[in-house]
Amino acid sequence: MSTTVSADVAPSPPASEAPKRKLLGANPLVRYIIVRFLLIIPTIFILVSMVFIIMRVAGDPITAALGGRLSPEQLAERIHKAGYDRPIIVQYVEYIGQVFTGNFGKSITDGRPISAIIVTYGTATLELAIYALIVALIVGIPLGMVAAYFRDRWPDAILRIFAILWYATPVFFVGLLLKLVFAVWLDILPVAGRASTRTELDLDSLPHPTGIYLIDAFQLGDPGAIGDVLSHAVLPGLALGFLTAGIFLRLVRTNVIGTLSMDYVDAARSRGVSEFRLVRKHAFKPALIPVITVIGLQIALLLGGAVLTETTFEWRGLGFQLTQYLGARDFVAVQGIVAVLAVIVAVTNFIVDIIAALIDPRVRY
């Protein structure tokens, strides 16, 4: 007697797939987060390895930093004490182990741990990156919508030209122009620094300063200090923000134009909905999804631009300090700071990927 199976009954999954499904989770979002998190480890490993190799091409750090200032005997003693006379593979394995425990070494010139340098100067770079990102979003997104609204007309052409110029112009050149116009000719903004000397002394006297001057100024409760901090942040924030604003402008323009060609937008247009309302209501939110994704990629651009921006405006952050260590040929400090920045970029990209997956379910599949 034969037994028939109804066609309505779905076949059960193979037993071998059960552990995999249990491990990754049935939820696509959970599976996506796990996979993206696991990818951070090889990413950081590759970045840190590249930094180590590039720095070692210049020779051992002790000779690079102190060669000519110490006798050959003293130099050999320092090299042996630091372990730089061992095989390069031994140094590499030890360095990778230290990095994954949070130890990035010590500076040769001043003997400070790299972690302490990051804490001291990292808040300044973070503050500058936030200012620049705010400028990029405020400038790039609205102008991208304007360019899409006037697509293939003269306002669109002008905005696209400006977007290319903003991205292509070196950030230090933009900074020098801004200083020339607003600090020298008009004399309405400070030429350099994070705050005036008096404000810095007041902020340093706080019992628990955060290192982010704007937050510390609000803690101080002095409107003059708040205004002083903001006035010093305008020019470097604009110089670095314009670098990314051009990317956001072109990205928003492209995605808004793509959304305006969708069927549901054509249906709304046939019902008499104005073009301005279509851009504002129907095309704005879908255009933001790729912008959120690209923000993570632009963190690396902002950090790279911060080196030149901080040097131009004497903004004492990680970028400014990095140039000081490069000038002193302190490759241990340079290696540590660059490795930390690489880790920050990898973690930031992971966070942005998760935010994009929460906003757009298509990212998870």
Descriptive report:
- The protein is mainly α.
- It has a domain at 114-364: MetI-like fold.
- The protein contains 15 helices and no strands.
- Helix 2 runs antiparallel to helix 5.
- The longest helix has 39 residues, at 275-313.
- The radius of gyration is 26 Å and the shape is globular.
- The relative contact order is 0.14.
- The model is unreliable at 1-10 (pLDDT under 50).
Instruction: Please give the count of helices.
Output: 15
CATH topology of the domain at 114-364: MetI-like fold
Output the CATH homologous superfamily of the domain at 114-364.
Answer: MetI-like
Unreliable stretches (pLDDT < 50, length at least 5) are 1-10
CATH class of the domain at 114-364: Mainly Alpha
C-alpha termini separation: 44 Å
Rg estimate, integer Å = 26 Å
* Shape verdict: globular
Structural class by sheet pairing and helices: mainly alpha
Strand content: under 5%
